Amino acid sequence: MDARALLEQAPDGRVATSATRLAGSSGWQGTGRDGTALWGLCAGSGKSPYQVCVDLTDRATKCSCPSRKFPCKHALALQLRDAREPLPEGEPPDWVAEWLARRTRAAPVVADESPEAVLRRARAKEKTALARQGAVRAGVAGLTDWLGDVAGAGLAGLPARDAAWWHSVQARMVDAQAKGLASAVDEVRGIVAAGGPRWAHDAADRLGGLHLLARLAESSDPVVRRRLGFSVAEEEVRAGPGWSDQWVPLLKLESDDGLVRTVRQWVWGRAHGWVVAVRHAGGGARPVPPLAHGVPVRGVLHPYPGVPPHRVAVGELLTEARPESVPVPVPGTWREALAEVAEHLVGDPWQRLHPVGCGPVRVTEDTRYLVDPTSRGLPVRGDLALDQALALTGGGAFDAWGLWNGRDLRLGAVAEPGGTPEVVG
What we know:
38% of the residues lie in helices and 25% in strands. The chain is α+β, with helices and mostly antiparallel strands. The mean pLDDT is 89. Strands 12-11-10-13-14-15 form a six-stranded antiparallel β-sheet. It has twelve helices and 15 strands. A hairpin with a 4-residue loop joins strand 3 and strand 4 (60-63).
């Protein structure tokens, strides 16, 4: 189970935050695992460390701490440590073995499949979903009021706002189980804190997107629900239909929100075009890309609900394809490339990063633009990836792929015109 799935088990945002910090703490000792359990001792406020264990068969937890929240931060942190790097294999201590034995001796619970029981479970599930919907609705109402206050006070006052002001609205969104809105508010805060000549323009753009999302919050559209924070379990996605194809992981971007590090990989499929694979890691760990970056592979990826480019869960990977057998076609002009972006924005107007390609292109003398055969240029970020591209191509024309954010291109892969791409970022 990855870090994001584990953090979704937290009873509230405070436990998730505390568990993430605790996972990287040095206060652990005696940690271990076997095929059925995780265990460890975690230093607490008392003289004796807390005894923490997790049953891997169903992720049930046991902790000697006084917390009334389940799972507690210690049990969640132990699992995050194991997700970051598997705990050492060993024999479970007596207190773990006794707890597991008690669970094994307990009478197995056989699901009641009578029509009445099935109906009861369906009603309970519906009740839970309605409660979540009500909480999110209240969060959206709070966000709408906050947006009104921001509009009334003006953007110029945002840099003077302290951290507590930003945290209060984010915490309200987390409490309302609308993590997507909390992340969006944090993105606005980051833009304001970073400053620069475009901060007001970018902040206004993000606030406008938040306003649109609040207006559409009652929609059942999967894109809107995902942006609000409603998630679909990866196990459920893998159990659904898969796309078998020859895939090339070309573009990659890592991010860190202070709690969870995320790596996103844009993968091109011969029959399915662009898709996005995502992996998270908590506790200070650095996530491994879902696929070997830059290495063509044949296999099955399972799409999440939504619009192109679909997020995917990695299914069965078969055999690696020969790199030279997987050329990736590109539009001949930037106009054509950006027209594809416009189509994607219609389906998801909150998407900020778009995979684009064009070729052949040339780098201008000042290395600020990539110019297509019609002499139209797209601003390119001057970074190590661009330096590597120039070294590989020797200043000649090349096919280019990168992530477009509306202002500049983050170069990720290049190739000789019509050739096999090589990742540079």
